[in-house]
Write a structure and sequence with these properties.
It is globular, with a radius of gyration of 13 Å. The protein has a 3-stranded antiparallel β-sheet with strand order 1-3-2. The chain is built from 2 helices and 3 strands. It has one domain. It is α+β, with helices and mostly antiparallel strands. The two termini are 20 Å apart.
Length: 83
């Protein structure tokens, strides 16, 4: 729910939202979900721009550059799908 409204997300976008929710303040990186999330940045873009969720991207430096860690900042409730 965003501002009291119910959103429906499906497929990989739903899996990304679940991963962000489960990770909590730790957040997730593309490497951590690489077995299924081939386009994590695209799923986050959808959650931000089409669903209105606040998702922060924190830069984590490493040898050779940096990678992004996505952290869900909006409160959400995950509901069971309808049969």
């Amino acid at each position: 729910m965003v501002d009291g409204s119910t959103l429906t997300v499906t497929g990989q976008v739903a899996k990304a939202l679940l991963a962000l929710t489960v990770a909590g303040s730790k957040g997730v990186t593309a490497m951590e979900v690489a077995t299924w999330a081939y386009r994590l940045g695209a799923y986050v873009h959808t959650l931000r721009h089409e669903c209105g969720l606040a998702i922060e991207m924190v830069r984590e430096p490493h040898e050779g550059g940096w990678h992004g860690r996505y952290v869900l900042r909006s409160p959400v409730s995950i509901l069971e799908p309808s049969p």
